[in-house]
Amino acid sequence: MVTKHEKIIQYIESLPVGDKISVRQIAKDMAVSEGTAYRAIKEAENRRLVSTIERVGTIRIEKKKKENIERLTMAEIVNIVDGQVLGGKGGLHKTLTKFVIGAMKMDDMMRYTDAGSLLIVGNRSDTHEAALKAGAAVLITGGFDASESTKQLADELELPIISSSYDTFTVATMINRAIYDQLIKKEILLIEDIVVAIQDTSYLKVNATVEDFNELNSKTTHGGYPVVDKHQKIVGIVTSKDVIGKQENESIDRLMTRNPITVTMKTSVATAGHRMIWEGIDLLPVADEHGVLQGVVSRQDVLKALQMAQRQPQHGETIDDLVKNEIQMSEDFMDTVVDFTVTPQMTNQFGAISNGAFTTLLVEAGAQALKKTKRGESLVENMTIYFMKPVQMEKQVRVVPRILNLSRKVVKMDFEAFSDDVLVAKAMITFQLLER
Fold it and tell me: Which helix (H) or strand (E) holds 162?
């Protein structure tokens, strides 16, 4: 049965891109309370179906595919730069293809300004109108206003004209940072990237029997299946271990594990892998926010995804990537040795290596040492670090990881870090192994 919340989300998805949405109107159209409408609109905003702008309202925007996630809508630009929409509100749903900084003569500027672009410029009225006529939106920096004729033209063409109190350099930096963050998001593997979709998923109904399990198992050879009720909501999971030695007419309802661990489409693959290790499970059902089955992921799916992710080029560099780029591996009397240079991006407010960068360094050093054992992928379970001395910017650090204990599922490692041949830190880390 579809809930009121789901009906509202479906209704919002059916609205034309560019439509304005209000809590009161949704409540009236769908015959629900304003509280229910508000919660559904917030959920739609989380799903990037709508964007809310101060003094404008909530706009239905185009839901972006993952491969185009680095593109921002004009509505998102307004929020990023704390802007005010002066005109052209009807075009806030449009997508930005590029931005142009107006720091040249108008004729030269117009060469780079075309449909889908955003011209960032100061208080130059003639340029504002020329950009709008070329099909571009306009972002006026310095908090300046636009002329009434420009606002009217923006409304007619449905091209936003936005004013921000920040200067041109700051605005360009903020937009560039937002695009950069989107590129990083694009590279993060989510469950939706590896899930076995519902149409290809084998599952059992709650009123099924052991005979039904055996029949499904003979067709698919899978070791376990989600169990759903008549509304397709996940109520349990049943595995081969649960049905061994049981009568064929025995009900699955009595044998299954109730309230199984589930993930959503937006859960990261790394998080799913950690939960599988921690809970000792091989199959994770994927559900929506209401518990309806959407697919499954197996331990093997997760392992393959993690291995593939390490081979992919990163378009947007995170702190982890910056740390890994500085690492140099070598061998010293059979020990794995990691040499590392502290760059300015990796320091705290005192100019010493930050805790986050140092933690990443240790984890990467441990992962490199584990590769020599030819074991599977690993995830950190716990970590204890003791600092003796701060490590200053542009100093060399040498980390020596040593395996203390190695079992089938757990590895305990000891770390010593040196700078200028002086011991600056010691650490103990326990890794969980994710194996086939």
Answer: strand 161-163
Please report the pLDDT score of residue 70 as a whole number. 56
Exposure of 299 in the CB half-sphere (CA atoms within 13 A): 19
- The structure tokens listed for 126 are 């003639």
Q: How far is CA 5 from CA 51, 83, 235, 267, 359, in A?
A: 18, 31, 21, 21, 42
Instruction: Give the C-alpha separation, 162 to 171, whole Å.
Output: 12
Please tell me what DSSP assigns to residue 114.
-
Environment class of residue 349 by beta-carbon count within 10 Å: exposed (0-12), middle (13-18) or buried (19+)?
A: exposed
Assess contact for 75 and 92: CB atoms under 8 A: yes
Four-residue CA torsion sign, 280, 286, 292, 293: negative
Helix, strand, or coil (residue 249): coil
Q: Where are the alpha helices (DSSP H) in 102-221?
A: 106-112, 125-133, 148-157, 168-187, 191-194, 210-220
Q: Is domain 64-187 annotated with CATH 3.30.1700.10?
A: no
pLDDT in tens, 305-329: 776 665 555 555 677 777 878 888 8
DSSP H helices in 158-209? 168-187, 191-194
What amino acid is encoded at 108 in this protein? D
Q: Please, what CATH class does the domain formed by 319-434 belong to?
A: alpha beta
Cβ–Cβ under 8 Å, residues 162 and 78 = yes
What's the whole-model pTM score?
A: 0.54
- CA 281, 287, 293 angle in degrees (round to 5)? 95
Longest dimension (CA), the chain: 84
Cα–Cα dist 321/250, whole Å? 53
Ranges of H-type helices in 221-354: 240-243, 252-255, 269-279, 299-309, 319-326
Lookup result for tokens 């489409």: 265
Chain centroid offset of residue 133 CA: 37
For 245-263, what is each residue's pLDDT tens digit? 889 999 999 999 998 999 9
The domain locations on the chain are: 1-57, 64-187, 192-307, 319-434
Supply the CATH classification number for the domain 1-57.
1.10.10.10
Whole-number Å distance between alpha carbons of 429 and 411: 8
pLDDT at 425 over 90: yes
Span 192-307: which CATH code? Answer: 3.10.580.10
**Residues 103, 168 contacting (CB under 8 angstroms):** yes
In Å, how far are 72, 113, 154 from 172, measured between CA atoms? 13, 15, 22
Per-residue pLDDT tens digits for 172-214: 888 888 877 776 666 678 888 888 877 888 899 999 999 999 9
Single-letter residue type at 82: D
